[in-house]
Amino acid sequence: MTNGPVPRRLFIDTVGCQMNVLDSEMVVASLRRLGYELTDSLLEADTILFNTCSVREHAEEKVYANLAKLKKIKLDHPSKTLGVIGCMAQKDQKTVFERAPFVDLVVGPGQLHRIPELLHNIESGAGKQLAVSLSRRAGSQEDIRRSHETFDPLRDPTMRPTPFQAYLRIQIGCDKFCSYCIVPMTRGPEQGRAPGLIVAEARELANQGCKEITLLGQTVNSYRFNDGGKTVELADLLSSIHDIDGIERIKFVTSYPKDMSLRLLETVRDLPKCSPYLHVPAQSGSDVILKRMKRGYTVAEYDEMMHRIRTILPDAAVSSDFIVGFCGESDNDFEQTVELVERCRFKNSFIFQYSVRPGTKGAQLLEDDVPSEVKTSRNQRLLELQNAISQEENLKFLGSKVEVLVEGPSKASLKRNEVGPIRQMMGRTHCDRIVVWEGNERQAGNLVSVLIHDASSHTLFGTIETRQSQPDVVQLAYRG
Ligand code: SAH
Ligand code: SF4
Ligand code: F3S
Fold it and tell me: Given pLDDT bands bounded at 50, 70 and 90, which one contains residue 116?
């Protein structure tokens, strides 16, 4: 037996959006380089990190509740290091130490590359460590931007939901300042990453066996980068990544309605690897509310954009986000949102109840005056309508074959603890619809053809096309 150094163990919990999932991948990659191994046991872990989200109050309260539960573990094992990272770390900063005094480390999303150094400081007895980016008015534009840098090139396939799917950040931060939203404060100014870096990272991902890349940005289609006098847009990035061997599918989220240009839509149409799937949140169907939200477009402009999408990409799946119960939202405003959902026939919508975020214009200037029970009932009504539409749209697939990138065993299969290679498998169509079928674990990572015979609002159910099930093969068998 060899007596190498005992590896340190890292527990990391991630909530929030895809940006956080990607950030956690980077943090893990950087700590693995130092010999850390992942564990899903809080008791075994030497370092416990919570990667947090601030977009709604509920998400934050859950983290503080989880931290409170860890107090005893920390008291019993003072050598464990407990860290809060991500958007809530940036927003709450020192308050995290006040609300959870046993936390050792607070690191905002723009400072995650410093985690190895900060953990080292804690081990060396330097006490609690705080690393956050500059706030939006705390310095020159250049200094603020630099304080929100990321360390994307470190990639760790084992930390991804599947090794053949990866997120790739093309844009940091957001400058849209929607009045309800905390993201411009937690993630800082909008910055496009250099195209050379992005394409090199896509190549690296392809070398790691990645087949599907999802480009990430808060307003991903607003991406612009001045590359030696030439402006590079998302459409250009799609073309460059499309040329990389091994990459089979390219997606991008989240899109901003005003920047859904003709050129971008035509690029998606003309490049077969680009998924005909667009996530382009409307937030509301009322002009009064959109104005109060400072979204920068009218309902008519959103409708025009949908018309453009349907004309250029008739088979595209479009999904949306909505906030119900925003300040001053009347029954009439809400009815207009219902009408927009009826008109647009989204593949799916994420529906949220408005949550006041201190530090936003909404919190400063507008009253959160829609009662909680009204928010809940509007939420339910919109969700029911959306689910009915999602199911109708899914039923259109009955009898057709879809090409599916197999992700792995379905959630139901994992829940049932099915063992062995034959189990219910799950994957997605090019337009991001979830498909399940009775399959084989070995299919994971492949593109397979599935014949759809049933559908619910969230899932298509099918059978995999194998040679045995083709009529000519069956006939041969009968003849024999
Ligand atoms: N950058 C993306 C999404 C940002 S956050 C975009 O602009 O579309 C994801 C979703 O959370 C938003 O689309 C919005 O619907 C919701 N959201 C943001 N702030 C919120 C708040 N204060 N209360 C409730 N929902 C919110
Ligand atoms: Fe938030 Fe608006 Fe920026 Fe999206 S576009 S991250 S909703 S401020
Ligand atoms: Fe949440 Fe930060 Fe993403 S606030 S939604 S984790 S950018």
Answer: very high
Ligand 1 midpoint to CA 444 (Å):
32
Asked whether this chain's domains 288-293+301-393 and 401-464 adopt the same fold, the reply is: no
355 Cβ inside 6 Å of ligand 1: yes
CATH architecture of 9-143: 3-Layer(aba) Sandwich (3.40)
- Taking only the tens place, the pLDDT of each residue in 41-72 is 999 999 999 999 999 999 999 999 999 999 88
Does residue 53's CB lie within 6 angstroms of at least one atom of ligand 3? yes
What number does CATH give the domain 160-275?
3.30.750.210
Q: How far apart are the first and last CA of the chain?
A: 59
On whether the 288-293+301-393 domain is CATH 3.30.750.200, my answer is yes
Closest CA to 206 of 170, 247, 238, 240: 247
Say how far apart CA 185 and CA 54 lie, in whole Å: 10
CA of 240 relative to ligand 2 center, distance in Å? 27
Looking at CATH, the fold of the domain delimited by 401-464 is given as OB fold (Dihydrolipoamide Acetyltransferase, E2P) (2.40.50)
Assigned token pair, 175? 């400058």
| pTM of the predicted model as reported, rounded to 2 decimal places | 0.93
Locate the ligand 3 atom nearest the alpha carbon of residue 88 and give its number.
Answer: 4
Q: Tell me, what amino acid is at 59?
A: A
Q: What is the Å distance from ligand 3's center to 55 Cα? A: 6
